[in-house]
């Protein structure tokens, strides 16, 4: 297990409510997998000049003057954001230290979360993010603005925190036989995610029971070669309804699934299955791409 | 990315719309002036500006950049229009667009790295001079009224922004146009107006295939023009994209921009517009006015069309003097005045490149020739400098009567004569050892220089042996790439 998560466990913090539970889960995962933890805060630049000029005159050295003006304005804003971010990650570092972790890196980066994750990806083995970000605390959609973009940008597994921290005990693995789902199955079977600490339920939903059972048998044969014991369930019906119901009935803490196997256009027109699952479940998620 | 696309379009709605309107107002006089430079009716430039701005907003690679009919491309069309007429210009515009799309697929934007700061400054200075020179016909053989009106216009343009509140609200080039027009209209002064220069648009543009015979002769007429237009258009567009990247601290997609410019030019040619490209001045004005997203470019193009279609009657009474004032402002603003004082402080090589670029452009009226000249001269200067990175150490061993030459540094076409001159062929020795393991042979000229040296030494009766040739000729391969490891770079710079 310890060898499964090898690189850094990254916790994305932004000072929002959910960012506290993100850190709690990250600490739990880092401890269980004996991995170093990285705490990341991104400083997004969305500066818009408050004093636009409308005189429309092309003047000599216009570019240089404008560049000075804009960079002066942004410099002040960036400095402010960096100071705020420093406070956030210092608190987070303190919390991780108090929890007994020793290998802690706390970093700030400029740019969007997705950009930061792409730059850092080579050293990461898991990314832990909150489902809601700082701008979206009360949003009815319930998903952070940057979340989907961030998940799509990288191929490292992403753990998504939906609510307050409770120590995870049960994990449901939703298996549908798709290529990403098969990859996810292999990772779980190799003991990627703290399996010794969790009861694992493998659930497949299809429109008829034979297909569902076939998937279950397939999954079971993979686990048969390991020393991990699993509970399995074949279900019939609408995937989202059945999975969310199973989550509730069995007190599932973490839902693991292959994510965004379809292209962006598919998701744009039909709504992504992953996004809908994320919205309609109350469990945390481990998304594997 | 759909999310970033959304950000590009809707991330800054209010700022983009306001800035787009400011830009549209500034684009109208420029589009008319550039049509006059090219020798076509004002409507050709106006339709082009509409088509290019609207299309580049959608297909361009740099959000917030303004593209339209430009002086740089208009200057290239003058003789084509004069000799063959408008239809050939439209065909050349479509072909230039096709060439730009091809350039995009071939990743030619990467060649922008060959354009040094000096060439870029030369490009802008030359452009400014040409824009100014294009105004001279409007200022010769005219009555004193024109001079007075132009001077007044310039006064308004530069002083109106200092008027409290109002100065920051209304674009001063527009104020200049309104004031000069009113003066001429009410005082009934007899000066040339835009209406005298040709047809203005009174309808929306319509799709039209250029009316030229589709044969080899047509192609041979338009092809040279299309190549120039495509090159100059991409040069100015990519330069402008760099400027906007720097101003907004964001990245642009240069490949997409090349293809986008191509699509926009094809579209322009097919609705009766001339070729264009990105405009440095207007793009900076857009950013300065708060425009950041694609919406600003779209608003600029669409609002321009609304303006000209509904106001064509009013536009036609605008005196040319007001337009000339705007163009002189563009020219003064485009010129890099700092580069004049820098002529003395910059190294002579840099100043030579800049001045040569300007001279060739002003002489040929083709910015592409100027840029090529600048690149060529700049590369020669660089080759000259690199050839100084070579040195030969020689030692003599009495016991064995052996002369050893140790060559360190870069041997290539420009340093090979110097390489040969290091050897003392008149010295009578038994053995000569040429140690090249710390040298780099960059081309076959270097190898043949070594051959020459060996043959001459052998003729003088010496036994010649070469040490380390394999190391030295590693750099001969075209695909040789300096590795990104520090020790590899160290090897090249300091010998093995």
Question: Descriptors for this entry?
Answer:
heterodimer; A: 289 residues; alpha/beta; Rossmann fold; 2 domains; 21% strand; B: 496 residues; Transcription Regulator spoIIAA; elongated
Describe this structure in words.
The complex is a heterodimer of chains A (289) and B (496). Chain A has 289 residues and is α/β, with parallel strands linked by helices. Chain A has two domains: 117 residues, HUPs (Rossmann fold), CATH 3.40.50; 123 residues, Rossmann fold (3-Layer(aba) Sandwich), CATH 3.40.50.620. Chain A is built from nine helices and ten strands. Chain A has a ten-stranded mixed sheet with strand order 3-2-1-4-5-10-9-6-7-8, sandwiched between helices. In chain A, α5 links the parallel β6 and β7. In chain A, α3 packs parallel to α4. The longest helix of chain A has 37 residues. Chain A starts with 7 loop residues before the first strand and ends with a strand. The model of chain A has no long low-confidence stretch (mean pLDDT 82). Chain B has 496 residues and is an alpha/beta fold. Chain B folds into two domains: 336 residues, no CATH class; 105 residues, STAS domain (Transcription Regulator spoIIAA, 2-Layer Sandwich). Chain B contains 21 helices and six strands. At the A-B interface, α2 of A face α1, α2, α8, α9 and α10 of B.
What's the topology here?
The complex is a heterodimer of chains A (289) and B (496).
Chain A: E1 8-12, H1 17-33, E2 37-43, H2 62-98, E3 104-110, H3 113-120, E4 124-130, H4 147-153, E5 158-161, E6 170-174, H5 179-189, E7 199-206, H6 209-224, E8 230-236, H7 239-249, E9 254-258, H8 264-270, H9 273-280, E10 284-288
Parallel strand pairs in A: 1-2, 1-4, 2-3, 4-5, 6-7, 6-9, 7-8, 9-10
Antiparallel strand pairs in A: 5-10
Chain B: H1 2-10, H2 13-38, H3 42-59, E1 67-69, H4 71-84, H5 86-105, H6 117-139, H7 144-159, H8 166-169, H9 172-187, H10 216-248, H11 254-270, E2 276-278, H12 280-288, H13 294-315, H14 320-334, H15 338-345, H16 348-364, H17 367-386, E3 390-397, E4 402-411, H18 416-421, E5 431-441, H19 444-459, E6 463-467, H20 469-472, H21 486-494
């Amino acid at each position: 297990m310890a060898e499964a998560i090898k690189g850094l466990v990254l916790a994305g913090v932004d000072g929002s409510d959910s960012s506290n539970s993100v850190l709690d889960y990250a600490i739990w995962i880092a401890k269980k997998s004996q991995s170093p933890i990285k705490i990341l805060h991104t400083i997004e630049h969305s500066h818009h000049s408050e004093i636009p000029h409308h005189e429309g005159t092309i003047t000599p050295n216009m570019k240089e003057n404008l560049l000075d003006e804009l960079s002066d304005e942004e410099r002040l804003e960036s400095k402010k954001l960096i100071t705020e971010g420093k406070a956030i990650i210092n608190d987070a570092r303190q919390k991780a230290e108090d929890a007994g972790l020793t290998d802690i890196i706390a970093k700030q980066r400029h740019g969007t979360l997705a950009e930061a994750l792409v730059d850092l990806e080579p050293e990461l083995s898991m990314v832990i993010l909150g489902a809601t970000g700082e701008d979206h605390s009360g949003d009815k959609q319930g998903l952070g603005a940057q979340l989907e973009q961030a998940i799509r940008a990288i191929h490292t597994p992403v753990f998504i925190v939906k609510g307050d921290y409770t120590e995870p005990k049960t994990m449901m693995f939703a298996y549908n036989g798709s290529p990403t789902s098969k990859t996810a199955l292999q990772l779980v079977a190799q003991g990627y995610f703290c399996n010794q600490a969790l009861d694992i339920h493998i659930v497949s939903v299809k429109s008829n029971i034979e297909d569902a059972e076939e998937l279950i048998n397939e999954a079971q044969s993979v686990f048969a070669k390991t020393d991990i014991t699993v509970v399995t369930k074949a279900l019939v019906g609408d995937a989202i309804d059945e999975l969310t119901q199973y989550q509730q009935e069995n007190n599932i803490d973490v839902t693991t699934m292959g994510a965004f196997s379809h292209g962006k256009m598919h998701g744009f027109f039909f709504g992504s299955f992953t996004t809908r699952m994320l919205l309609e479940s109350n469990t945390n998620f481990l998304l594997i791409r | 990315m759909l999310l970033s696309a959304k950000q590009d379009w809707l991330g800054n709605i209010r700022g983009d719309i306001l800035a787009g309107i400011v830009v549209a107002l500034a684009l109208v006089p420029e589009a008319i002036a550039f049509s006059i430079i090219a020798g076509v009716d004002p409507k050709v430039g106006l339709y082009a500006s509409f088509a290019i701005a609207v299309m580049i907003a959608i297909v361009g690679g740099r959000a917030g950049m303004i593209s339209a009919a430009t002086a740089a491309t208009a200057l290239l069309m003058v003789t084509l229009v004069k000799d063959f007429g408008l239809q050939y210009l439209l065909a050349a515009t479509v072909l230039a667009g096709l060439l730009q799309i091809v350039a995009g697929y071939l990743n030619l934007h990467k060649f922008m790295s060959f354009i040094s700061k000096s060439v870029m400054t030369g490009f802008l200075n030359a452009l400014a001079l040409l824009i100014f020179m294009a105004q001279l016909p409007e200022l010769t053989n005219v009555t004193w009224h024109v001079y007075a009106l132009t001077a007044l216009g310039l006064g308004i343009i530069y002083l109106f922004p200092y008027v409290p509140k109002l100065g920051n609200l209304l674009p001063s080039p527009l104020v200049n146009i309104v004031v000069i027009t009113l003066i001429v209209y009410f005082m009934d002064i007899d000066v040339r107006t835009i209406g005298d220069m040709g047809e203005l648009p009174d309808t929306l543009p319509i799709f039209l295939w250029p009316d030229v015979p589709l044969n080899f002769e047509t192609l041979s007429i338009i092809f040279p023009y299309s190549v120039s237009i495509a090159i100059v258009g991409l040069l100015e567009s990519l330069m402008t994209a760099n400027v906007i990247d720097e101003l907004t601290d964001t990245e642009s997609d240069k490949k997409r921009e090349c293809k986008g410019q191509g699509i926009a030019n094809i579209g322009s040619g097919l609705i009766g517009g001339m070729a264009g490209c990105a405009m440095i001045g207007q793009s900076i004005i857009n950013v300065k006015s708060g425009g950041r997203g694609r919406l600003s470019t779209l608003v600029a193009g669409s609002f321009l069309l609304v303006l000209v279609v509904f106001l064509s009657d009013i536009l036609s009474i605008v005196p040319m003097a007001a337009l000339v004032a705007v163009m002189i402002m563009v020219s003064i603003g485009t010129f890099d005045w700092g580069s004049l004082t820098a002529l003395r402080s910059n190294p002579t090589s840099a100043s030579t490149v800049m001045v040569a670029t300007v001279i060739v452009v002003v002489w040929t009226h083709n910015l592409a020739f100027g840029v090529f000249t600048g690149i060529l001269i700049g590369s020669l200067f660089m080759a000259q400098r690199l050839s100084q990175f070579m040195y030969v150490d020689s030692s003599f061993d009495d016991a064995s009567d052996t002369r050893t030459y140790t060559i360190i540094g870069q041997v290539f076409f420009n340093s090979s004569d110097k390489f040969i001159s290091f050897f003392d062929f008149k010295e009578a020795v038994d053995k000569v050892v040429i140690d090249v393991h710390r040298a780099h042979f960059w081309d076959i000229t270097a190898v043949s220089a070594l051959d020459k040296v060996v043959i001459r030494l052998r003729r003088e009766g010496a036994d010649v042996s070469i040490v380390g040739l394999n190391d030295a000729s590693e750099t001969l391969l075209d695909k040789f790439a300096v590795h990104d490891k520090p020790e590899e770079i160290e090897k090249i710079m300091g010998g093995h």
